Amino acid sequence: MGVVSEEEAIDELQKLINQVEGPLKKTFERVHQGYLRENLSRFLKARDWNVTKAHTMLLDCLHWRVDSEIDSILSKPIVPSELYRDVRDSQLIGMSGYTREGLPVFAIGVGLSTFDKASVHYYVQSHIQINEYRDRVLLPSMSKKNGRPITTCVKVLDMTGLKLSALSQIKLVTIISTIDDLNYPEKTNTYYVVNAPYIFSACWKVVKPLLHERTTKKVHVLSGSGKDELLKIMDYTSLPHFCRRGSSGSSHHTQSVDCFSVDHPFHQQLYSYVKHHCETQGQGEPAKQGSFHVGFPEPGADGVQIAKTIESEMHKSENCNGLGKPVDDRTVSP
Predict the structure, then answer these.
(1) For residue 296, is it within any domain?
(2) Where are the stretches annotated Disordered (predicted)?
(3) Distances (CA, A) of 134 to 40, 112, 127
(4) Residue 320 is assigned to a structural domain of this protein
(5) Does the pLDDT value for residue 4 go beyond 60?
(6) 122, part of any domain
(7) What's the CA gap between 106 and 231, in Å, rounded?
């Protein structure tokens, strides 16, 4: 059999996926939001354009969505509001704006997230809700606004405060990353790492060879807060707050808004959206549902190896004198 082009691979996968019916077909419509071929290509990229493997991956994703009732997760608010605030205070993620190309900019506080104020189920629920809101609301809206498919985002990872205690959360982080790898593949265009201390440099050097080249090409470790580099792809107003340090922006930009805060417009809009959909489905005021339980996938062998490697390297670096110092971008390969 000759080499199949990317377009031919998409055609083949589309023929296979057209055979699904019932709940699987309905949930796939939620996934592609009218941008069928762009979303089929995501699964093909994740499986190196092997149609058979991509088909299996996509079917597994659709079954997971149906079994875990993912289609209804945007009508399942985390309540009471105090609990949602606790989740936001300890799972630092937010959206600060858009790139000039229209891609959402998600900020993640890797180093200062503690994941210690709620059960693992609430953190997984919150993460999936943000994924689904991005895919069902933000990306379709930006696609219409820009007149072209926008199906990915960029992520800015703040490593401020990264230290050995982060190992206590490595299992939860592995669960979340596995959910993303299996069910939301190729949704991130680029990862920008900022405020990276020595311990990140040490871990990155040993973890990088374990990752697929497709992934490592997306990771860019920036010097310091990364402000200068990020301003090449986004306006100042879209910079995450932790990238604005030392800035002399114009007067109406000097107020730095914490995009991790539950009071940030993104989180307020997301929570209002979820609560509204809960109420319009006739459920009235949402009751505390004991969290929305989602089936956790077993991390693959690669994920387990990476987690063990990070743990080992962080232990080695525990007594390093430069543990808390930001790393110069020249010491880490982008």
Answers:
(1) no
(2) 314-334
(3) 18, 23, 11
(4) no
(5) yes
(6) yes
(7) 15
**Cα 221 off chain centre by:** 17
pTM over 0.90: no
Mean pLDDT score of the chain: 85
Looking at the fold, whether 202 and 112 belong to one and the same domain comes out as: yes
* pLDDT score at 83: 94
| pLDDT over 70, % of the chain | 79
Instruction: Name the CA dihedral angle for 194, 200, 202, 208, rounded to a multiple of 10 degrees.
Output: -80
DSSP tag of 317 = T
Q: 84 and 204: one domain? A: yes
**Looking at the structure, do residues 38 and 138 belong to the same domain, yes or no?**
no
Going along the chain, which residue ranges are E strands? 93-98, 104-109, 153-158, 188-194, 219-221
Q: Are 135 and 172 in contact (CB under 8 A)?
A: no
The residue segments making up the domain with residue 38 are 6-67
Q: pLDDT tens digits for 213-238?
A: 888 899 999 999 999 999 999 999 99
The verdict on 126 and 192 lying in the same domain is: yes
Tell me what the mean pLDDT of segment 304-325 comes to: 57
| Residue in the structure block whose two tokens are 């089936």 | 295
